[in-house]
From TrEMBL:
One of its GO terms (cellular component) is early endosome. GO terms for biological process: positive regulation of toll-like receptor 3 signaling pathway; positive regulation of toll-like receptor 4 signaling pathway. It is found in: Early endosome. Keywords: Endosome, Metal-binding, Repeat, WD repeat, Zinc, Zinc-finger. This is FYVE domain-containing protein 1 WD40-and.
Length: 429
């Protein structure tokens, strides 16, 4: 059912400890069981499985439970051993797992959505289960009575969710690229604000700008992570980018992080080491150093002519006619945001302090201001070698679990890349 990987540790990279195989369809959720050598998985094959590590080093299912509809997501609360399963039919099912992780009893079924459940969070403090779905809504239900407390509809599929348990604020990402912040109450709610940024990120999707920005799609939000201590929200999207929203700073500060080559689908911020862990659909695993001074990426400026040489862009018919010249394509310098022509922005350079870990377009003026030390990487990139749609991390042991559409679950030792003293208490037998 699972293979133990015997590999010699190498410096500063994730070490694959185990592969768990056995699901017959995409694995849509995997969580590490705290203080146990165990993993809980849910899948499109309609099964919920609890895998425990045996003396042989292999993981075998101690619980194998089948439900009526494909499983789309889950939320596990370890202290109470309650697990909530989101399904393709819109229902959320609650189970209680026994202390020895060998038995699971059905508790309630909640009619949360009319379509696939995309994400959910259980709050023990309020006894609510908050969920988002492809019916374009976020709903919150009482786990004591099983009744619906409230629902809000969006203009697009609600794709992911984070929840602040102390303030009862919900962050909902949707497929249009927007993030909505709501204050949830027992029978009502209020919309606090809407965060927009991945629409601009979609314009940066093509690094060489071989496609005009107007023809690119908005960055559908794939994942969110909320850090309640520093009050930072991180969002990853289909535009391959990550945005850090400084909610606690109250100044609208955002930081752009670009280094992935595919849709960003999983995030985890490690408060102790000030590192951000991100995973993408192509198996990319990135570790970002957030304990450093970073600069905000500028907004792209609009202009009818190059802001360096003043040559007209191709839609500026009047200036083209007056100057008897052929219009040029518009590009943008990533460092200053100015609209420039290709001739005035022929240089490329990484600029990690602004979040650009790969070479991006720079105007000639900005390129000359970049020092060699400014090109020093502030992130490390690794290969997971499988599609990653979900990820869970146990910082206390330095462990990470990844899963995806290839039906494989991988368990990693991340202690070499996320800070040394975190990995304690893991049984490596």
């Amino acid at each position: 059912m699972a293979a133990e990987i015997h590999s010699r540790p190498q410096t500063a990279r994730p070490v694959l400890l185990n592969k768990i195989e056995g699901h017959s369809d995409a694995v849509t959720g995997a969580v590490l069981i705290p203080k146990e050598d165990g993993v809980i998985t849910v899948s499109e094959d309609r099964t919920i499985r609890v895998w425990l590590k045996r003396d042989s080093g292999q993981y075998w299912p101690s619980i194998y439970h089948t439900v009526s509809s494909p499983c789309s997501c889950m939320s596990y609360h370890h202290d109470s051993r309650r697990i909530f399963i989101g399904q393709d039919n819109g229902a959320v099912v609650e189970f209680l797992i026994s202390e020895d992780f060998n038995k699971m009893n059905h508790v309630k079924t909640y009619p949360a959505h009319q379509n696939r459940v995309s994400d959910m969070v259980f709050s023990l403090e309020t006894e609510w289960v908050v969920s988002t779905g492809h019916d374009k809504s976020v709903s919150w239900m009482c786990t004591q009575s099983g009744s619906m407390l409230g629902r809000h509809y969006f203009n697009a599929w609600a794709s992911c969710l984070q929840y602040d348990h102390e303030t009862q604020h919900a962050f909902v990402g949707d497929c249009s690229g927007q993030i909505t912040l709501l204050k949830l109450e027992k029978q009502t709610y209020s919309i606090i604000t809407t965060l927009k940024g991945h629409e601009e990120g979609a314009k940066r999707l093509d690094h060489n700008e071989s496609v005009q920005p107007s023809f690119t799609v908005s960055g559908s939000i794939g994942t969110l992570w909320w850090d309640p201590v520093q009050r930072l929200l991180f969002s990853g999207a289909s535009d391959h980018s990550i945005i850090m929203w400084d909610i606690g700073g109250r100044k609208g500060r955002t930081l752009l992080l670009q280094g992935h080559h595919e849709r960003v689908q999983a995030l985890r911020y490690l408060q102790l080491t000030r590192q951000l862990l991100s995973c993408s659909a192509d198996g990319g695993i990135a570790v970002w150093n957030m304990d450093t001074q970073r600069e905000e990426a500028p907004q792209w400026l609009d202009s009818d002519s190059c802001q360096k040489c003043e040559q007209p862009f191709f839609w500026n018919i009047k200036q083209m006619w007056d100057s008897k010249t052929i219009g040029l394509r518009q590009h943008h310098c990533r460092k200053c945001g100015k609209a420039v022509c290709g001739k005035c922005s022929s240089k490329r350079s990484p600029y990690p302090i602004m979040g650009f870990e790969f070479p991006v377009r720079m105007c000639d003026t900005c390129f000359e201001t970049i020092r060699e030390e400014d090109r020093t990487a502030l992130a490390t990139f690794h290969e997971g070698k499988h599609n990653i749609s979900r990820m869970d991390m146990d910082p206390s042991r330095g462990l990470m679990v990844t899963c995806g559409s290839d039906r494989v679950v991988k368990i990693w030792d991340m202690s070499q890349v996320v800070g040394c003293s975190l990995a304690t208490g893991f049984s490596s037998r």
